[in-house]
Amino acid sequence: MAYDLTSYQTGKMAFDVKIDGHTTRIDSAGPDGEDTGPSPKKLLLGTLAACTGMDVVSLLNKMRVPFSDFSIQTKADLTEEHPKVFTIVELIYRIKIEEERHQPKVEKAVKMSKERYCGISAMLAKNSPIEYRIEYL
User: Fold this and answer.
1) Contact 59, 98 (CB under 8 A)
2) Is 20 helix (H, G, I), strand (E, B) or coil?
3) What is the DSSP letter of 135?
């Protein structure tokens, strides 16, 4: 088994997850939780953005593409019935590049993350469609 971590209840609905010496709090808003951390679904969307973002940064650096102001906005819709799952996820990559000629390399990096490298998007895509969009600043 590649991963082995433990989660500890620390409040009403809150859990602290200990991973490689780091602690992340996960909680619920609303009447049952105390909103001391992100919800599990929102954290999952954050890990998706971080996973693909790390891929894109690594690939652009290898391609020697100068960039700045890189961010990824993540949006998702949920089903109404339980278990509530994502019906669609949208990733909007916002990036500033020095020259327009680098746009094909940015598009290639996003495509490579989507199709080859990001394990989180590969897992989520089996259950929910993921749309990818790039906006140049």
Assistant:
1) no
2) coil
3) E
